[in-house]
């Protein structure tokens, strides 16, 4: 017991030294603590069968925050791509574009996009997700359903703390609407889904999400699907769905500025030297 207390005291001191050193190196930028970072080690991820990103999203965000050139380019990109809003276009036949059913559906979509959650419009949500997309190469949008399965609200999920599992071996049949020969054709496909996980607090708790379109019921606390539960287990809180938007074809996305990351870090530290000297 005494050895355990000494271990946790030493660990706390080491973490304090680490944060102090990081703050001194950054010199400016965010001062918020990120306790989740200490639990995002490769060992901790492998315990939950989560894939380790090739580039640490937390460090990518730090570079983007503290770089004078990367941050400005990202802001310009987000404002010019996501700041101009959106336009709804009908995918059906021209004869039906003015029908009452189509106009009612358009009005419902416009109402939903004007307030996708309790505080944000679709444009505001897209700009937040766009920042994640440009900083880390990944953007995650949480889809919260009503009890009947229809979409209730959309939220941005922080790309720094979201991690992916491998695709599942078994396939799940789902029905999707594909446009073929100018008409919408329902088509059944067999898809391999994956789980998403987010470290929720400093006790190393995991909050689980399922991939968008996965029809199975999953527990957000245990990460188990309904058919995987034992007799004494139950769904405590149903998992919502995640839409993963990424740059590139790898499991995790790669930001478009990764090629100049070393140059951006060099310029940052050169600025520190000039500040100290002059």
Description of the structure:
The chain is α+β, with helices and mostly antiparallel strands and 278 residues long. 36% of the residues lie in helices and 19% in strands. It has 7 helices and 8 strands, in the order ααααααββββββββα. It has helices at 2-26, 42-47, 57-66, 70-82, 100-114, 122-136, 261-277; strands at 138-145, 151-157, 162-164, 172-180, 183-191, 195-199, 206-211, 241-246. The strands form 2 sheets. It has a 6-stranded mixed sheet. A two-stranded antiparallel ribbon has the order 4-5. A hairpin with a 5-residue loop joins strand 1 and strand 2 (151-157). Helix 4 runs antiparallel to helix 6. The chain is globular and about 70 Å long. It starts with a helix and ends with a helix.
Strand and helix layout:
Elements: H1 2-26, H2 42-47, H3 57-66, H4 70-82, H5 100-114, H6 122-136, E1 138-145, E2 151-157, E3 162-164, E4 172-180, E5 183-191, E6 195-199, E7 206-211, E8 241-246, H7 261-277
Parallel strand pairs: 7-8
Antiparallel strand pairs: 1-2, 1-8, 3-6, 4-5, 6-7
Helix pairs in contact: 4-6
């Amino acid at each position: 017991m005494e050895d355990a207390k000494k271990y946790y005291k030493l660990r706390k001191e080491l973490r304090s030294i680490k944060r102090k050193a990081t703050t001194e190196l950054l010199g400016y930028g965010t001062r918020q603590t990120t306790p989740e970072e200490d639990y995002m080690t490769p060992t901790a991820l492998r315990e939950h069968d989560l894939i380790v990103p090739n580039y640490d999203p937390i460090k990518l965000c730090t570079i983007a925050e503290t770089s004078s050139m990367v941050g400005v380019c990202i802001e310009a990109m987000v404002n010019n791509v996501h700041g101009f809003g959106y336009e709804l276009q009908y995918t059906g036949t021209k004869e039906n574009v003015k029908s009452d059913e189509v106009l009612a559906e358009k009005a419902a979509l416009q109402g939903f996009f004007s307030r996708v959650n309790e505080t944000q419009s679709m444009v505001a949500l897209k700009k937040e997700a766009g920042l994640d997309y440009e900083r880390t190469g990944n953007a995650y949008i949480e889809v919260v359903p009503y009890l009947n399965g229809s979409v209730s609200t959309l939220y941005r999920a922080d790309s720094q703390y979201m991690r992916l599992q491998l695709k599942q071996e078994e396939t799940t049949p789902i029905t999707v609407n594909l446009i073929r020969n100018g008409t919408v054709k329902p088509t059944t496909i067999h898809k391999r889904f994956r789980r998403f996980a987010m470290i929720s607090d400093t006790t190393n708790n995991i909050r689980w999400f399922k991939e968008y379109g996965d029809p199975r019921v999953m527990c957000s606390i245990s990460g188990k699907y309904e058919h995987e539960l034992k007799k004494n287990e139950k769904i405590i809180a149903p998992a919502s769905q995640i839409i993963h938007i990424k740059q590139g074809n790898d499991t995790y996305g790669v930001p478009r500025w990764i090629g100049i990351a070393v140059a951006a870090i060099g310029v940052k530290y050169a600025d520190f030297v000039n500040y100290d000297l002059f």
